[in-house]
Amino acid sequence: MSEDPREKAERYRFEKWQREQGLVPSGDDPGHPEPSGSSEAGRAYSAADRAAVVEVSIQQAIRRGEFDDLPGAGKPIPGLGQSHDPDWWIRRKIESEKLTGLGPPALMLRVEDRELEARLDELHHEHGVREAVEDFNRRVIEARRQLLGGPPVVTPTRDVDAEVRAWRERRAARVASDETDAAPPRRRTWWRRRGA
Q1: Among 109, 97, 166, residue whose Cα is nearest residue 140
Q2: CB atoms within 10 A of CB 140
């Protein structure tokens, strides 16, 4: 079976480095410093040889300062004392990219249930509020029917009429507070000030 060209190139670099460091005497053929009668097994390197090469390379890189400005230098390793989570890389990607809408339906519906009132308050028409609540209820029922695994769906459905009433009340309160904040203080006219 033929040797992998990448391994062959790396072996050549390693042998060249060994000759330059004076670890092995130089042979007649620069590509093969071993005696010509040696076999493939004779050219294999021990784990100690590879570890020595790696250690020397690391020490040289440290002296050159290649590890000085690495990101996270001097900071604690995040999540070091926590239990092992097999999906840690997914969670970290979601946090770093600030992705939304990803996860099991049960968890996503819980989050949406918490934020539903704020989302409804952004709507301007009662028809849109009704549609949004009906869509939410439809997705909750659909998630309960599917058996995909993961946590159970415990999010309750919302009463459409009750949500519309609550939306109207919040909207009326918001409009009233905006009017009181926006009303300028009454100023007395100059003829009333003179007479007083």
Answers
A1: 109
A2: 20
